[in-house]
Amino acid sequence: MVKGEDYALARIPMEERRPMWEVFMIRFGAVVTLSQFMLGAALGYGMTLKDALLATVLGSVLLEIISFLNGVAGAWEGLSTSLLTRWAGFGRLGSSLIGLIVGISCIGWFGIQNTIFAQGLSQAFGGAVSTKIMSVITGVLITLLVVYGYKMLSYTANIAVPGFLVAVGIATYHLLSKYDLNTLLISPPPGPALNFGVAVTMVAGGFMVGAVVTPDLSRYNRNAKDVFWMTLLSIFAGELLITFIAVLMSHAVKSADVITIMLNLGGWISAALVIFSTIKINDLNLYAASLGIANFLDAVFRVKISRAVLTIIIGLLGTLGSVLGILDKFVNFLVILGIAVPPVGGIMVVDYFILKRYRKELEESRVYGRLPKEVEDWNPIAIVSLVLAFLVGYFYKGGLNQALNSLIAGMIFYFVLMKVYMAFSPAKNAKFIKKSEAGEV
């Protein structure tokens, strides 16, 4: 395996799998970040503590279901998300569409996170360096880190995660020293009221791309048990812990601005450490984007471009988005992702665990560490189900929230339409046009 390629278009062999705690640390680092703190502060600014935590729990349950099931499939097969979708619902060309969607979403997130990082550093230097110039510097530096793949993700997680927790710990200590905890626990939101359904969608949408692309990391897990603890601990510990603290701090400082909150409660040391933690989520954004785009180019154009080279290209694109002010669309971006992405994970779960259309081929090729030699070009039912599910989630305002509506709709549409097709199809497992595809070692 070429250095930096990280099995972008191949299975990860068992001898390359990593201990649960190591993969967990990377995943946990994707949750306990500045963006999660921003989300918690936004919830606290518009909600009571009780409502904010309830919204977080519901959003987290949705994230955990998708994370665990997709993560198990990734661990069993040793495949990245976009590559796995070739044999889990979408087909070769359909998976390229998913890879492209994931890539674009993660590039967008990279731009958002990079802007946050740059704004914090610019403030730290007293405005001596503009946010746009700082965006270019930080974007390029993070891009160079991700070129080296999984190992660098692990190294940065082992530094950034403890640093973030120390920063939050310092600020929490000052919070408890200056304010009465009982008063904060029952205090009303300091800002305009935030709708509960929107809040749940924001929580789910804020990490939904991360939940769907869980196989990008879980393919390094050794078994389903490791996936369970990796996803459960990272999501619930990260989401609930950070949200609880962020809500209290938002109520105390009466602001939704994270830098203002950290400066008031923890000083520049805490603010700097929290800002630094942005590196951890942004390297994962770039990593997932490189895997998704690699699959897209291979599936559509039969072009295998180095993942390291792709990382540099999309890192520069994300940096450009940061300079152009992508952060301005932050909340809208969260809500749209919370509606559009869940059906992808739902369709994968139905196809892989219930319909099992390619399980035989996957299991047979797994023994030899290769990809299955046969794959359908398209599964139009998956694409139609995805579109219909998004429309349901976007336009139907009933139910608990739009993210859950789109997830359930996607699973139901796909299962029912596939069953109808299978009833009239001579093929038992209802596969569409198949092509021969040489397996990768």
TrEMBL record:
The protein's topology relative to the membrane is: Multi-pass membrane protein
* Major site of localization recorded for this protein: membrane
InterPro entries under this entry?
CodB (IPR030191), Pur-cyt_permease (IPR001248)
Pfam families associated with the record: Transp_cyt_pur
In which compartments does the protein localize? Answer: Membrane
Which UniProt keywords are listed? Answer: Membrane, Transmembrane, Transmembrane helix
Positions of transmembrane segments: 24-45, 52-73, 93-112, 124-149, 155-176, 196-215, 227-249, 261-279, 285-301, 308-327, 333-355, 376-396, 402-424
> What PANTHER family does the record point to?
CYTOSINE PERMEASE, CYTOSINE TRANSPORTER CODB
Similarity remark: Belongs to the purine-cytosine permease (2.A.39) family.
Q: What is this protein called?
A: Cytosine permease
Organism of origin = Carboxydothermus ferrireducens DSM 11255
